[in-house]
Design goal:
Blueprint (H helix, E strand, L loop, with lengths): L7 H13 L3 H14 L1 H26 L11 H5 L3 H22 L1 H8 L4 H37 L8 H28 L2 H21 L3 H6 L4 H5 L6 H10 L7 H25 L3
Length: 283
């Protein structure tokens, strides 16, 4: 009778060869399969599109009910992209669940067993999230324009794709929503708990920023323009609205792209912190 024993050298060799086959494109492919197969994706992306289209139609219809003297927004682009405020909540939920969902089910251990270096999995998740949200948001902007077109015609408003201001709003909406989704994803990678991450992200976007803007103390006036939504959302205001906001501002006044740069800086810092902790903490 003989006893079969494993050869450690052969096992290490097979493991090394297997690790060499874990390329980033392969990780992206596997993460994409997971991303599109979970319920959170199937729910939040359609909700994002519905919110954007529905609010654009309501805003356009409501504007037709106003007297000419009551009209404030005269930009078709600002009406078409007006649903960004609520849509950011849906994509934030998607961003958080894209990472915390795996911690909740324990799937993250299988993910890291397949990708021992871990960070490629984190980058792949963030990349898939950003691209998907940007594409869905861009489609939603196009659908919003089509749905609101009858009311825009009544108002005599039309999109001018040759206008830098209109292009900034039309392309800025997908860009902002993709970035805010990765911002929420980065918070999720730090907290690793769905409810806790949601409380932090929604509290920051809906409560903290409004509190900072409302308190007339110098500290809050200086810091408020550099908070994530306040800074990044300047990309989504037309020139008339920006002039009104700047006239009322008591702190720094950022250009639309400077504001977006501040939001990107938030994402880079949080995602870097999440990557460092991902390497140091147990799954």
């Amino acid at each position: 009778m003989t006893t079969m024993t494993a050869n450690p050298t052969m096992a290490v060799g097979r493991s090394s060869r297997a690790a060499q086959h874990v390329t980033f494109p392969h990780v992206v492919t596997s993460e994409w399969i997971k991303f599109r197969s979970v319920r959170s994706t199937a729910w939040t992306l359609p909700i994002t599109a519905v919110l954007m289209v529905g609010l654009a139609v309501l805003q356009a219809w409501g504007t037709t009910q106003l007297e000419p003297a009551e009209l404030f927004t005269t930009s078709a682009a600002s009406i078409v992209t007006g649903g960004w405020f609520l849509a950011q909540l849906a994509v934030s939920v998607l961003g958080i669940l894209a990472i915390t969902g795996e911690y909740g089910t324990g799937m993250i251990r299988s993910t890291f067993a397949a990708v021992p270096r871990r960070l490629p999995a984190l980058w792949a998740k963030a990349l898939i999230l950003a691209v998907t949200v940007a594409v869905v948001s861009l489609v939603a902007v196009a659908l919003s324009y089509v749905a609101a077109l009858p009311f825009l015609d009544q108002l005599g408003l039309e999109l001018d794709l040759g206008s830098a201001g209109d292009l900034r709003l039309l392309l800025g909406a997908p860009l902002y929503l993709a970035t805010i989704a990765v911002f929420a994803f980065a918070i999720g990678s730090l907290v690793r708990h769905s409810a806790g991450s949601l409380a932090i992200v929604l509290g920051l976007l809906l409560v903290v920023e409004n509190v900072f803007a409302a308190i007339p103390l110098r500290f809050f006036e200086v810091v408020a323009p550099f908070l994530p939504m306040g800074a990044g959302s300047r990309l989504l205001y037309d020139d008339a609205t920006l002039e009104m906001l700047d006239a009322a501002a008591t702190g720094a006044t950022l250009t639309p792209w400077q504001g977006y740069g501040v939001l990107v800086a938030w994402v880079v810092v949080l995602l870097t912190a999440g990557a460092v902790l991902l390497r140091r903490r147990d799954a």
